[in-house]
Inverse folding.
């Protein structure tokens, strides 16, 4: 009889751990179902290095992700939707730049905060954007400028 109680206790612990892991996984991947972010749009000349799911960082801290990225066939620019955490307020004169974690690292979108006292709200657009800087293009410019 005591073996039966032990099996039930162990089964309960395993079930609790599985549920806890599932909740943690849902929260860390953004599948929790709660609307804890607001959308902001931005248009980039080049979205090289970024895709859906790319981190958005402010002062090195992740504050959101890219939730949609598509080509505008009229302007030939990459239109993006950024999902930003609700607890983060971004001044409306802020800028965005595609930055790299290093020579071999991945890319992320950096928010360069402005000084405005007005803040972006859901659906607003950040106008000032800068695409990624290609290391190969920089090297080619350096090499070609040395030949003159």
């Amino acid at each position: 009889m005591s073996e039966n109680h032990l099996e039930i206790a162990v089964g309960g612990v395993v079930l609790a751990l599985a549920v806890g892991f599932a909740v943690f996984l849902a929260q860390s991947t953004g599948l929790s179902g709660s609307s804890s972010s607001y959308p902001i749009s931005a248009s980039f000349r080049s979205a090289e290095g970024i895709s859906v799911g790319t981190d958005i960082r402010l002062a090195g801290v992740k504050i959101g992700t890219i939730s949609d990225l598509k080509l505008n066939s009229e302007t030939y620019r990459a239109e993006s939707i950024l999902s930003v955490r609700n607890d983060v307020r971004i001044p409306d004169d802020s800028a965005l730049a595609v930055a790299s974690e290093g020579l071999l690292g991945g890319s992320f979108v950096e928010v360069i905060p402005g000084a405005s006292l007005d803040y972006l709200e859901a659906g607003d657009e950040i106008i000032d954007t800068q695409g990624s800087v290609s290391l190969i293009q920089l090297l080619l410019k350096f090499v070609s400028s040395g030949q003159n």
